[in-house]
Amino acid sequence: MFESIAQAIPTDTIVYGGVVIQIKRLDLVHPQISGNKFFKLKYNFIEAQELGLSKILTFGGAYSNHIAATAFAAHQCGFDSMGIIRGEELANQPLNPTLATAQHFGMQLQFVSRQAYREKTNSAFLAQLQQDYPAHYLIPEGGTNALAIQGCQEILTASDLTDYDLICCAVGTGGTITGLIESSAKHQHVLGFSALKGDFLQRDVAQLTSKTNWNILDDYCCGGYAKTNAALLDFIQHFEQQYNIPLEQIYTGKMLMGIFDMIDQGRIQPQQKLLVIHSGGLQGKLKGST
Ligand SMILES: *Cc1c(COP(=O)(O)O)cnc(C)c1O
């Protein structure tokens, strides 16, 4: 399944402010599932298989693209899956489309309180989980770990490394951009648009790579994760009308709004050869909150 995905991802061309922008459409990999998530899962699933584990255990918020992608990919690859979902109260409500999709693909959902969920990176909590679910292969929230980064190194093809000098992507946990950075050529710059407020991602990613041909901006996060404003929603609507490429408001809408603004400001210039990674996320479109 993963082999067929990496091949032949289409690229669309748009022009704005005299800048030619190539958009790599990972969103077309599957109508509901974020393209970058497949790359993050690939080597994790191979590892699970090698360890003889038949069940995948992971975490996410109620609208998580990672949860939807894991459920789908696990189903395709013959794994059972369990998702630990933030928000105890959700157990008594009808499932939203993300969780309904996950359940449809066989993911068992377990709802935990926000307080318990906060422990998800705590080593004692994780050790306890491994004890409680010994046959499960554990993937962290958002799917980012060393194997995810290895998978994201396959997003760029050989010609991407010679045809472009600026590569843009949206950033959540930093796994995708780290893979792009690791695989990028020396003359290329990788620019990340954070969906979250703060400079911690710049520090986190610096821990994961020794390269320096990159940076992450939070200027276009619109106040924080899953926060929106009228300007962003307006931008997305106009962009979709003009270019006929769908965006969502959590990652790709903020990134493209940022790219257009940087072009307006002359911070991205017509002579630059620009590749933009459309990471998908359309299953979460206009669902708003985390
Ligand atoms: C998860 C996701 C990202 C962020 O990827 P990270 O590896 O967590 O930084 C970007 N775009 C979309 C659409 C996503 O679903």
From TrEMBL:
The active site is at S64 (nucleophile). Its cofactor is pyridoxal 5'-phosphate. Transmembrane segments: none annotated. PANTHER family: 1-AMINOCYCLOPROPANE-1-CARBOXYLATE DEAMINASE-RELATED. It comes from Acinetobacter gandensis. This is 1-aminocyclopropane-1-carboxylate deaminase. Residues 23-280 form the Tryptophan synthase beta chain-like PALP domain. Belongs to the ACC deaminase/D-cysteine desulfhydrase family. It comes from the Bacteria. It holds the Pfam family PALP. GO terms for molecular function: D-cysteine desulfhydrase activity. The modification N6-(pyridoxal phosphate)lysine is found at K37.
